[in-house]
Fold each of these.
Amino acid sequence: MKKTILQLTAWVYLISVLLLQVASLSHAKDIDGCLICHQYPGLMKIVDGSQFQPLHIDEAQFDESPHGQATCRSCHVAVVKVPHTGVSQVDCFKECHKEDKETINTDRVSLKLFHKTEQSYLERIDDSSACGVCHRLYPHSRNNIVRSFVNMHTGFLHCEVCHMKREEFPRLTYDWANAENAVFKGRPYGTFFNPKRSNKDGSLNSISRIDVFTFEKGIKRSIRDPLDVEKARSFLATEKNLGKADRKQALDAFHKNTARNKISVACNECHSSNSILDYRQLGFDEKKTYNLKYMNIKGLVTKYQVFYFPKLFGN
């Protein structure tokens, strides 16, 4: 009997040790909630006024990387609050790599490429919009705090969905636009999936973005006029030769139906119970519809200004 108890105790001890070892080898948890924001593909930061830096992190791919057990703030030591900007400082030696400090310090290029395999974003998209003639792919840069979130929508919506004076049009509806030519870095997202179509295998003709349409004589057509593209190109080619008054007149004509909304207003127009988008009609299931209406990330933009990470347990 004692032998049996001893054997049982030994097995329990062995299993406990194995479980502890497995737990120690498991992937790090997002204990600071960094992925609440950084989980979204297309999250893009503007650098030096014209360059872009992706901020998206694919959790699954990071977990499988050699650093999958590390927490974000083990390296990103300058991050102390949410939201944050300009905190690109990385310290590889606070908790790890102390013996490799000299080697890593001389190889700063590798740090810039560190997350490249875990990021997804649009590199180029060709559509029939005049907006893209003058405005860059990720056009929002004024508000440092939320510009990355707003730019993320490039991969999901046409500009006019948000920037449209809807009162000028008596009847509007929102639907998937025709296929577009999009070039992705990393995994395709957003435009690459139209839930209303049956071909969900990632083929090229499933590339779409949500667009705004109007009805004329019972016929649904896009609010965008293809002729505006040629007009915009002509304007861009001759802009330097235009006087101040002529330039303003041309710009006013292009933007006559364009609305500039406050960020909080723009968020609530789509991500609320009174959304202008009928997510179910667009093909999203009930769970996805709920998440899009009541997504938690919106609160960082519309409710709270700054959240500081508390220092717990001496960290």
Amino acid sequence: MTQTATDAATPAASPEYLDMRTAPRLCSLSRRTLDAAKARGELPFYKIGAKVLIARADLTAWMEARRVDVRADVARIEALAAGEV
């Protein structure tokens, strides 16, 4: 079977489940950080035999839950400085 130019330009589908080598690289965190989140029950995971997998959606949700809204922090600081709080 030959590969067409269109096939070569189409990116491969992202895996739905990530192993513990891929997940830390995807979010630029250490494996230790993800292991700690798993141990605290913050990051759901699957264990199949010795293999640990994290659903891409769970990793994304975990990251989004830790998003810091800088605008809200600035507004709170400005309110404190103005004596409004």
Amino acid sequence: MKLKYNRNSELEIAGFGLFKPGAIVEVDDETEAKRYLDSSYFDEVKKRKKIVKVKKYKTKEVNKNATRK
């Protein structure tokens, strides 16, 4: 589980260590992750699904009855 430090200043948290703004911590143990989240200094980083954009092409309709000038 990835956790992100959510403060704007550098801070040493007792029992966890020194963290800078935007620092990300990877924790494998659920109880350890709960300790980090309960301290309110960290937020869970959720995985985003990658969005694939598909270009849609417009087809031009040809009017066969139109006359050319």
